[in-house]
Design brief:
Elements: H1 2-9, H2 21-26, H3 42-59, E1 69-72, H4 74-82, E2 89-93, H5 100-112, E3 116-120, H6 122-128, E4 137-141, H7 149-158, E5 164-169, H8 174-186, E6 191-195, H9 204-209, E7 219-222, H10 225-234, E8 238-242, E9 248-249, E10 260-265, H11 273-278, E11 281-284, H12 296-311
Parallel strand pairs: 2-3, 5-6, 5-10, 6-7, 8-10, 8-11, 9-11
Antiparallel strand pairs: 1-4, 2-4
Helix pairs in contact: 3-7, 4-5, 8-12
Length: about 300
């Protein structure tokens, strides 16, 4: 037993040394990572912004998707298809009178592609529409995919521009929302923010009023509008609220030349108290004609024009 111990102890054991660290230190660290993976690189920031937008679509960030909507009746369906309102299915009643509007609806749906054509008996359409006078045509509009408020800042950064955003406070008419989207698109803005509750959403009516610009101008939905505006301020965006009794006249506001979020309230009540207190400036639009107020679409268009003029 002792001999065995001596033989074992005579073997060469571990030696004190570098442990191979010097050799490893001389080894290469591999190829340089692509720009998208290098921290602080412009392409890495752009990739991160793209990932956030993708995450927002899949995880339904504040607002997320709404619910499906039905456009009912021959004239409304044809008008929606003409204006490019997104649609998933066109339901046509069996044995329908094939008049000019029905033929146009079928032709528009076929030309656009991606719209399913479904024939259904009248009782089924009555059930779907809760007994509304559908006249044999029903168009299903899929849920709108809202952006996240931060996505609008990312869009401006991607384009190398100062953010130009419109936020709506208490605007409940979808046509006003559509008009604002159209103005934002016309004057080079980066999107519209609406509250999640007690506010107009992107319905078929809003799509039609936007005249197709909703396809390229994002609408973001905020769980809390005041908090979203505060986040914008932290990001260096000046928040400007429109108010009939504003302390600053529109033509005197130099901030419109930089990153700005323009907040428009409802025609009747104007800005809510918390939103008004969050604004950096409360601005009035001069109205020599004596009108007391303007609707949201008109007011936003005037201020967006002034902002675009200053930036040009």
């Amino acid at each position: 037993m002792a001999a065995n111990n001596r033989r074992m102890s005579g073997k060469k054991g571990a030696q004190v040394g570098s442990g191979g660290q010097r050799r490893r230190g001389l080894e290469g660290k591999g190829p340089t990572p692509p720009a998208e993976m290098r921290k602080g690189h412009a392409k890495q920031r752009a990739a991160a912004a793209k990932a956030r937008r993708a995450q927002g679509r899949t995880q339904r960030r504040p607002g997320g998707k709404g619910t499906s909507e039905l456009v009912v009746g021959r004239n409304p369906v044809v008008e929606a298809l003409r204006e490019g309102v997104p649609a998933s299915t066109l339901y046509v009643q069996q044995f329908i009178d094939n008049d000019e509007r029905v033929r146009e609806a079928l032709q528009l749906a076929a030309e656009r592609g991606g719209i399913n054509l479904m024939e259904a008996p009248r009782p089924e359409l009555d059930r779907m529409t809760n007994g509304l006078n559908h006249q044999g045509l029903v168009l299903q509009v899929p849920p709108y995919e809202y952006a996240h408020p931060e996505d609008l800042l990312d869009a401006a950064a991607d384009e190398g521009e100062d953010a130009l955003i419109v936020a709506l406070d208490g605007v409940t008419d979808p046509r006003n929302l559509g008009a604002v989207v159209r103005s934002v698109s016309a004057f080079g803005g980066h999107g519209v923010v609406v509250p999640e509750r007690r506010a107009a959403g992107m319905t078929a009516g809003a799509w039609k009023t936007s005249a197709g610009t909703a396809a390229r101008t994002p609408v973001a939905r905020a769980t809390n509008l005041t908090r979203a505006l505060e986040q914008y301020k932290k990001a260096g965006v000046v928040v400007v609220g429109l108010a009939a009794d504003g302390e600053v006249e529109l033509g005197e506001l130099e901030a419109l030349g930089g990153p700005v979020a323009i907040v428009v309230g409802s025609e009747g009540k104007g800005l809510s108290r918390l939103v008004g207190e969050t604004c950096d400036f409360r601005v009035r639009i001069p109205m020599p004609g004596g009108a007391e107020s303007l609707n949201a679409g008109v007011a936003a268009g005037i201020v967006l024009y002034e902002a675009a003029r200053r930036r040009a």
